[in-house]
Write a structure and sequence with these properties.
115 residues; mainly alpha; two-stranded antiparallel sheet; 37% helix; binds zinc ion
């Protein structure tokens, strides 16, 4: 069910549910001066849990478990990279490997672009 919600709504539902009261402030502080680790966008950022909260609740507030990934726009790195483009319940076990591949793909797209 929650995986069918858009990510912003899913985040709100989660906050209203079982999340630590410290999560919203930690999330906001984490995202200050961040950019998407994949595409470099600075807007619509999400603090993605590398090991997801629903499986690893003890890592909810562990900053080393967070990645800044964008949502919306032409890329939805949060969904495509963080959740392997499958479902909000899936997670990529090695998101840095996926990020390296995506960056190489984006670079090749820019290199090969023509007007
Ligand atoms: Zn991105």
């Amino acid at each position: 069910m929650a995986d069918e919600l858009n990510p912003r709504l899913a985040s709100i539902v989660t906050i209203l549910g079982e999340r630590s009261p410290k999560w919203p402030a930690l999330r906001a502080a984490f995202l200050v001066n961040r950019k998407c680790e994949c595409c470099g966008r600075r807007t619509n950022l999400n603090a993605h849990h590398i090991k997801p909260y629903h499986l690893f609740p003890s890592l909810e507030l562990d900053v080393s478990n967070l990645l800044a990934l964008c949502e919306g726009g032409p890329w939805n790195c949060h969904f495509l990279i963080g959740h392997a483009g499958k479902s909000w319940k899936w997670y990529h076990p090695d998101p840095w490997a996926a990020i390296r591949e995506a960056r190489a793909f984006l670079k090749s797209m820019r290199t090969n672009a023509v007007r």
